[in-house]
């Protein structure tokens, strides 16, 4: 693995490049979501399986990210984070724009799956470099800024993609060429961290071992949490139609409110972590997810649905930074790429299987409402488990303080 021999201190320039790079993953999905109906209208007359393949052209990259992210982490550890990130960004732009030139639906689906591979390398590379460049509270700040930036950029390009999609389904795909402008800044501003120097520092601090238990807990939290988080954006439109709300504008407002609430949750995370601790924050976010799910099912009016979506979104906004930060801290420099790759993989696996889990739960409960209530109950049970972990942590901390103060 390539390393530098000179110590460097990361600052605002490195942070800006990595935050913008991280946002490419959300842009990869939201920018073309709005053109799905136009793609369906074009390909359905000539392809009998268009109802299956057109949605896969939009959502397929998430599956590719889930499957490839662990390998992307190995590549980052083996060949270097910066080099992988630059190559991945170039592939992202080329593969992202390519569907605009294709006429075969299966070709578009194949290109979009390869595009997801590039997204996996970008997300893993950016997250790993954030962990490499900063420590302690600075690292926490950049984890938080990463989530907030992803939300803000995603919301902006959701609107931009929808506007361009009014003229043609091909138009939004040209926007994927924009990240080419980021490549020179990646090459000039970023540097490959010195693994040897980081390992020496961690050894001095007694932090040179992988905390396996923390890793497993973080992976399970992000995987199950994303299953709960994606219930609302996928199932809320169905709930609203059941209440008689058929206006696409009102349904779109509900989706937009969910995005804003997620941003609010991410902005509240530093306060929540300081107030409740990492374990206590997990309890809070899981309870908020459960309350939102129950509120969604029990709502009788549009306004109540919007309130439930807001509560749920705040919990979802707390999830990613509070799951990611302990995972980063649990890894050593040599394992950081692979560890963050698995984190990215679990995150996207949770997203991908969410509707499948809801369908399985609906088969048990008998309908969609019952399925969502089952997931809410699972979230509460999970919160109780984290609550007992938080109680034990506080008790051990109190004992340690008493021992240190005793003569």
The dominant shape is globular
Q: Report the sheet-strand fraction.
A: under 5%
CA-to-CA gap between the ends? 49 Å
What sequence of helices (H) and strands (E) makes up the elements?
HHHHHHHHHHHHHH
Q: What value does the Rg take, in angstroms?
A: 22 Å
**CATH architecture classification of the largest domain:** Up-down Bundle
Structural class: mainly alpha
Write the layout of secondary structure elements.
Elements: H1 12-33, H2 36-43, H3 50-79, H4 81-97, H5 105-133, H6 136-164, H7 183-189, H8 195-204, H9 212-229, H10 231-242, H11 248-298, H12 302-330, H13 336-365, H14 368-405
Helix pairs in contact: 1-3, 1-5, 1-6, 2-3, 3-4, 3-5, 3-13, 4-5, 5-13, 6-11, 6-12, 9-12, 9-13, 10-11, 11-12, 11-14, 13-14
Give an overview of the whole structure:
It contains 14 helices and no strands. Mean pLDDT is 86; it is low at 1-6. It starts with 11 loop residues before the first helix and ends with a helix. The chain is an all-alpha fold and 407 residues long. It folds into two domains: 10-185, Growth Hormone, Chain: A, CATH 1.20.1250.20; 205-400, Growth Hormone, Chain: A (Up-down Bundle).
